[in-house]
Amino acid sequence: MKISFFSTQPYDKHFFSTYNDSFGFQLEFFETQLNAQTVSLVENADAVCVFVNDRVDAAVIEQLAARNVRIIALRCAGFNNVDLEAARINNIHVCRVPAYSPEAVAEHTAAMVLTLNRKTHKAYNRVREQNFSLNGLLGFDLHGKTVGVIGTGNIGASFCRIMKGFGCRVIAFDVIANREVEASGVEYLPVIEVLQQSDIVSLHCPLNDQTKHIINSSTLAMMKKGAMLINTSRGGLIDTPAVIAALKKGQLGYLGIDVYEQEEKLFFRDLSADIIEDDTIQRLMSFPNVLVTAHQAFFTSEALTQIALVTLQNIQELATKSNLSSKAALLV
Ligand code: NAD
């Protein structure tokens, strides 16, 4: 059984090759993203393994079906980049890794809150240049602040636990309340109230038709002046030009993003010697109160281990037509 991997980095090859020993699949790694231009690279593969920025639309799926690919294995939790209906029509199974390490993403979210607040990134550079002044590094106590969490699934629930540990009041909105989260003292409120009451808003819902640009000029206007917004979920949750306008007015006090709507042309690459044509990301990065990380929230060795093991197990179970161990892993 052959699996063609797209968008691979050295760490993908390392973790998948290590854990493939007990599965014995033939693995082929491509650095390029999967899209309509690159799908022709797939030859004699039974499965393709894709990541967050591979574009698995209907045209690509038809090409995969024509090449007898039977499985699309996402090595991530989100699946907004795959046309599930096209996969269904073409009899291709789609599986994912529903929860490889929610803590990895929740902890990175907390790191972004702390960095933006206490400016440790600036302090690090300052001290290295023998500048021991504290001017401009003033932060605020997290203890007693209100944190609003939108989406309390695996990652949102973990983030709620962390922020409660800091002594924050945690409020949340989700289309389905998580009873365990509620029992831990998190109050569910309508989304408008969460936005109005929070000092920090963190997004942990999936990207879909209901959540696209959930943060836009109207919802930004509902937020407390000077509040912090964190997005470690998917870039499309935020209307970026509206966020830039809110930052310019001071309506938004801090922005931390690990994801960006146009990230597929930028993230996971070293572009340090290139001219970036995307003026929006350049404008974002020019603000002193904006922190951008390049989709690294998942990036812990525990998460990469789980991603490799669960992805290979999903493919094995689908190939042998047995039931997937986790129902949530099978999308089509
Ligand atoms: P999950 O499915 O466990 O939780 C998502 C939650 O969002 C669910 O409770 C769901 O009911 C809720 N939800 C759905 N629609 C909603 C809406 N309209 N408003 C509010 N809540 C809504 O998913 P998860 O594992 O917690 O992951 C959340 C998201 O994080 C994923 O969709 C993915 O996009 C992103 N993610 C990012 C990284 C990263 O490295 N930055 C890594 C993993 C996942």
UniProtKB/TrEMBL annotation:
Record carries keyword Oxidoreductase: yes
GO molecular function: D-lactate dehydrogenase (NAD+) activity
UniProt keyword NAD, yes or no: yes
Highest rank taxon of the organism: Bacteria
Keywords: NAD, Oxidoreductase
Residue stretches making up the D-isomer specific 2-hydroxyacid dehydrogenase NAD-binding domain: 111-297
Domain spans labelled D-isomer specific 2-hydroxyacid dehydrogenase catalytic: 6-321
SUPFAM superfamilies linked to this entry: Formate/glycerate dehydrogenase catalytic domain-like, NAD(P)-binding Rossmann-fold domains
EC numbers, comma separated: 1.1.1.28
Family: Belongs to the D-isomer specific 2-hydroxyacid dehydrogenase family.
Name of the protein this chain belongs to: 2-hydroxyacid dehydrogenase
Organism: Danxiaibacter flavus
